[in-house]
Amino acid sequence: MTGRVARSIVRRPFFAVLIAWVLCLLAWPVSAGAGDVRALQRRGTTLLAKGIEGSRTFKLLIDAIAQSDVVVYVDLDAFDERKVDGSLRFLGKGGGTRFLKVWLRSRRIDDEMVVTLGHELQHALEVAGDPQVVSQATLAAFYARKGQSDKPARFETRAAQQVALRIRAELSRPRRGAEGVAGPTRTTSGRSEKTVTKT
User: Fold this and answer.
1) Are 183 and 129 in contact (CB under 8 A)?
2) Is the pTM of this model over 0.90?
3) Is 65 domain-assigned?
4) Disulfide-capable partner of 184 in 37, 129, 134, 198 (CB 3.0 to 4.6 Å)?
5) Within 10 Å of residue 84's Cβ, how many Cβ atoms?
6) pLDDT digit string, tens, across residues 108-138
7) CA atoms within 13 A on the CB side of 18
8) Contact, 154 vs 196, CB < 8 A?
């Protein structure tokens, strides 16, 4: 192993944690009680507020994540041309907190983006329920075990699909109640498409 490769391997965890803390500093403040889900752009803050106001299921997801050790950043990078509507990626771990990032394709109407965001937050809650997910590699392994795949290297869970359907119904037809959200149990298994790289 060359010195350059060795230094690169040593530095990776440091940079993962550094990126997570930089995101903490850059995140826009989120209102409406979304304490552990933080938007990186103002539109993301708007989407969170709309989800909390318009969908009980969405609010239950936010509340459940707030009780976990997971902080989720919401990123709407207009220059990212991934061919999925949303994805989840592991950023790093530090101070007893695990940092995740949800990426959303931004060239869509708000309601559809709220649905995708709720879908990805259900995935974040699934990760919160497994303390062994501590890196991008273990995140990929988790979905390889627990997810369902219809394309190579892409995984999905039934729970996230069901959550998306409930949120869409609640946004289009407001009602007083909603079915419970699958919580962060230690044995959780559960359409945007989930990739093993979560990029």
Assistant:
1) yes
2) no
3) yes
4) 129
5) 16
6) 999 999 999 999 999 999 999 999 999 999 9
7) 5
8) yes
Phi, then psi, of 84 in degrees rounded to 5 = -130, 165
Residue-range definition of the domain harbouring residue 58: 10-195
Which pair of structure tokens corresponds to residue 49? 């507020």
* Domain count along the chain: 1
Q: Which residue has the tokens 């559960």?
A: 190
Q: For residue 76, is it within any domain?
A: yes
Q: Is residue 4 part of a domain?
A: no
d(CA 187, CA 189): 6
71 in helix, strand or coil?
Answer: strand
Structure tokens that stand for 47 in this block = 């989407």
DSSP code, position 41: S
The span from the CA of 179 to the CA of 199, in Å, is 30
Convert the pLDDT of each residue in 137-161 to its tens digit. Answer: 999 999 999 888 766 667 889 999 9
**Do 118 and 190 form a contact (C-beta atoms < 8 A)?**
no
Query: Hey, is 174 helix, strand or coil?
Result: coil
- Whether 181 is covered by a domain: the verdict is yes
Q: Position of tokens 């290297």?
A: 153
